[in-house]
Design brief:
With about 140 residues, the chain is α+β, with helices and mostly antiparallel strands. An eight-stranded mixed sheet has the order 2-3-4-1-5-8-7-6. The longest helix is centred in the N-terminal third of the chain and has 12 residues. The radius of gyration is 16 Å and the shape is globular. It starts with a strand and ends in a 10-residue tail after the last strand. Bound molecules: zinc ion. Zinc ion binds next to strand 1 and strand 5.
């Protein structure tokens, strides 16, 4: 079972303008910006209480975020649930009949492994599973 809602992904057109808007709305500043080259997105993260907000802006017209905004406009893009074992979670949900976009996890922003479930099988809600990557052991200090 997923452990909790980890973040809400929000598709935006102009990252600078939206960072300013969400800083005013939430009363906190973004804690990091990170590009995910493979997805053609640049992300900006806010933390409020236990939940994060991931603003997503396209870096090119072929980016899934650009296509999403063309179709639906700006707004909520996905919900992300934290898992303690993402591989097990994907296998289990697939067996239950959920349609997976990613059969195995891939690298996402914010030091996470991520995978998406198709919104067709989740009442139209694009759903992300994520798991914190294990911190690599630093052998140099030994
Ligand atoms: Zn996400």
């Amino acid at each position: 079972m997923p452990k909790k809602l980890e973040h809400i992904g929000i598709a935006v057109k102009d990252l600078d303008a939206s960072e300013e808007l969400f800083t005013q709305l939430l009363g906190v500043k973004p804690y990091k910006r990170e590009a995910v080259e493979s997805e053609g997105v640049i992300t900006s993260f806010f933390a409020l209480g236990d939940v994060k907000f991931e603003l997503l802006a396209a870096t090119n017209p072929d980016s899934p975020i650009a296509k999403f905004i063309d179709k639906k406009g700006e707004g909520i893009h996905h919900l992300a649930f934290e898992c303690s074992n993402i591989r097990h979670e994907l296998l289990e949900k697939s067996e239950m009949g959920f349609q997976l976009i990613h059969q195995t996890p891939k690298d996402g922003a914010d030091n996470k492994e991520i995978a998406f479930l198709h919104p067709k099988s989740t009442n139209g809600v694009l759903t992300e599973f994520c798991q914190e990557k294990l911190t690599p052991v630093d052998h140099k200090t030994q």
